[in-house]
Design brief:
Elements (H helix, E strand, L loop, with lengths): L15 H5 L6 H9 L16 H11 L2 H4 L60 H10 L3 E2 L2 E4 L3 H12 L4 E4 L16 E2 L4 H5 L6 H11 L6 H9 L1 H11 L5 E3 L9 E3 L6 H16 L2 E3 L2 E8 L5 E8 L3 E6 L2 E4 L8 H7 L17 H7 L5 E2 L4 E8 L9 H4 L3 E3 L13 H9 L6 E5 L1 H6 L1 H8 L4 E3 L2 H8 L3 H17 L19 E13 L2 E3 L5 E3 L5 E7 L4 E2 L10 H23 L2
Bound molecules: (2E)-2-methylbut-2-enedioic acid (MEZ).
Amino acid sequence: MKLTLLSFVLCSIFSTASWAANDKNDLASFHKEMGGCKSCHTQPGKVSDSETYENQQCKSCHGEYSALANPKLKLDPHASHLGDINCTSCHKGHEKPKLYCNECHSFKGLEMPFNSAQSKEPWDKGWDNDAISKAIAAGPKETTDVIVVGAGSAGFNAAIAAKKAGAQVVLLEKGPFSGGNSMLAAGGYNAVGTAQQKEHKVDDKIEWFVEDTMKGGRYANDPKLVQILAEQSADGIKWLESLGANMDDLKRSGGARVDRTHRPTGGLSVGPHIIDVLRKASVKEGVDTRLNSKVVKLVIDEDQKIVGVVVHGKHSGHYMIAAKSVVLATGGYGFNKEMVAFYRPTFKGMTSSNNITSTGDGIELAKAIGASMTDIDWVQAHPTVGKDSRILISETVRGVGAIMVNKDGNRFVSELTTRDKASDAILKQPEQYAWLVFDNELYKKAKMVQGYDHLDMLEKANTVSELAKITGMKESSLEKTVSNYNRYFKQGKDEEFAREQMPLPLEKAPFYAVKVAPGIHHTMGGVAIDTKAEVLDIQSKPLVGLFAAGEVTGGVHGYNRLGGNAVADTVIFGKIAGTNAAKHALETK
Ligand code: MEZ
């Protein structure tokens, strides 16, 4: 498959000739010639970790992303799902730019301005115990009520909830942009008893949500946490809506008995939407969000109570912030190859659908002060990660009607089974990959599928046999598979694999296929928490002042998470953690 995109440019005022002509050939020297260091910095050498002033300068000159997005380009990073992030995330002033898109995609031929500039050592490589000790010995440089570590959905929800509860909040994110793994969430948010379910006449019950989640997690989940997830799920939707989200579309995810996965109208991916909403809401609430700020130590006193954190800032170096409460919302370890190999050796070397920030930092930070871990070795492989990229092909595609076949064109499992079973089934097929096959009716219905097409991930043909030829499947097998499936659709019964729901037949040309294989998707285990989102020590007592929410925790999902439960988890337990962290900080002043 060939990507048609040949190049993109930062903004229209840069011609290739002008930025390539510079002798040092980096963004800074180009601007120096245009007006000196002050065209970007207030005072060179005094740059905040978030590079806020510098980014204001970029935008004041070049405009917002909406102005920079070039409609003539097939793919334009300025209009991508990263949303409104710092320009300097990719366009570095004094070093080679970094094309973050290619951490997940494999776009060929994308050329960035100043690409021949020199690379520098990453600012955050490795632990520096000496610098950490010095920062603690020097004492806190500042004090706040609540520190939230990690600016994905759990972190933003915790920070906003803590702020609404009256606390001063600092939100620290190690990455150059916020969003974490949540930003990549495609599917949706599971909730029961919502206005949306009522409108679609979906009959659902809290008990069913609990049962489905426990069954999906092989009954290894903490039932108290699952009960909270189900009971507070509808309130979580209302909370997101109150912050500006649209969660009006409903679909079914694997392992759920009814349609309870909520997502934006038109079937858009949920993650970029809610992260955009949460970014804006946190600004409105006055959360002090700092990017390029990695927490390297949780600081406790002699009674094991939290007294703050040590931060390693990109520009400010190591410093301590004092706080009575800290919320860990650092996400899972699905992008940390060493941790995956250690905790789940059978998944060693497997691709991952996760954001590059999912490196398990919170687990290490919490372990270092005696936190207990729950199910730390349970790692979920998502069955349908793009075979030639790290892009997740959402289970929505199966939910709205796609079938899954092996390299020969034969179905081998119910497409709606839980992820662990679907992944295991693919790994038992020849060459350990599969194809999702669907028709034009589905293509028109699911906006995200049009997005995969835009990314050139789909094979397309006018007939089923032509599709088989293009993809190397056996023509007679694929034709038989499709005609059998259409018969099952008509009779309302899948005779082979008892698929519970068949929303569409596969009849309308063109027909499509996308190649998929299992990839690390979610780490179910993590720090142990109680129902107040307090982190527990190895005697199962709360570590006073430490809270956690989202994928850094264990217990909610048991051995296998259901699709749509992660986003719900981040919102519901993010809110609980933030509210209780604020309460603790304000009451112990
Ligand atoms: O919750 C998820 O991980 C999810 C629904 C993913 C997906 O396949 O879209």
